[in-house]
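Weekly structure sync, notes
Attendees: PL (lead), two postdocs, one rotation student
Agenda item 3: pending single-chain targets
PL asked that the sequence for the first pending target be pasted directly into the notes so everyone works from the same version. It is reproduced below exactly as submitted, 329 residues in total.
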Amino acid sequence: MRFAILGLDHWYTAFGACEVLAASTENTLAAICTENDDHAAWAAEKYPDVPLIRNPRQLFVDTDIECVLICAPTALADDYALDVMESGKHVLGVKPTSNSLDGLRTIISTSEENDVFYGSFEGIQRFHPKTLALKNILTSGTIGRVLSVHQVGNGGLPAPWDGRASGEPSWWIDPEMIHTGAWMDHAIYAIDLLRFSLDAEVDAVAGHIGNRLHKDLPLEDYGMALLRLKTPSGPVSVVMEDTWSSNPGGGAHWMRIVGTDGWLRSDGDDWVVCKGGEETVYKSEESVFFRLDDFAAALVEELPMPFTPEDALANLSACHQFYTVALRD
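Predicted structure, written out during the meeting:
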């Protein structure tokens, strides 16, 4: 499959996707499209053999491109996705994939009308060995019935570009470009992970948001949510603390899941199960995060896709519920 990257603004994602596709023996990084001069200079130097497109409209009419990864700011992502899909190409969209649920519903309708796939980037983790290992541990009953989850994603402000300082002006902290801050940035991945691994849906949300470290930031730098998941074995309580409130070197990223027969914790790419005072490490195959070869194979060979447009809508809807009900400090 021939892929194109549209926008390099979400550079954390774009860099990883470019590296994976450039190294692939099965798929091709066929184009990088950006209107930003500095980003274009980076692409030309880093990937001199990859066609560089400066006008997105040229990308839309390129009949050789089969799938577009949108790494542009969220405010631009809706229109880009619609144009790409109307030109008959599949799309993986930046997260959050839209600033509104109605915008995402329009995108999903357009994908159906044009018989192309649409998905949000948080869903790609469902191909990862660590994710599959977690699902197997939980569904096999290794820790018994799951009762609760505590997830922490405590980091600093995003940087506008590699090598730039965290918190410099960027689309991530511009309320004209994106309507949500720190909590959405990290929590949407955790919500997708738990929905997938527990076969769950979010059915209740509460919490609070605020600005703990960056008082003048127009978006929240701190969010704490309490979610209730509906699962086949019963309700699961989830605490999600996701922030941009750590100083350099002070971040924390982990997950702990408590069951009736034990509990587990994340440890790098592995999971550690604790039962009866003993620990068992469930090791995962070392892997890149963006398993785009697996994604392309599922599309080309019409294999079951582990994430769908409806998953993107469910993830975004759960996040929007939080912002609707959350108390502000």
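Discussion points:
- Residues 309-325 form the longest helix (17 residues).
- Residues 2-116 form a domain with the Rossmann fold fold (CATH 3.40.50.720).
Action: rotation student to compare against the earlier draft before next sync.
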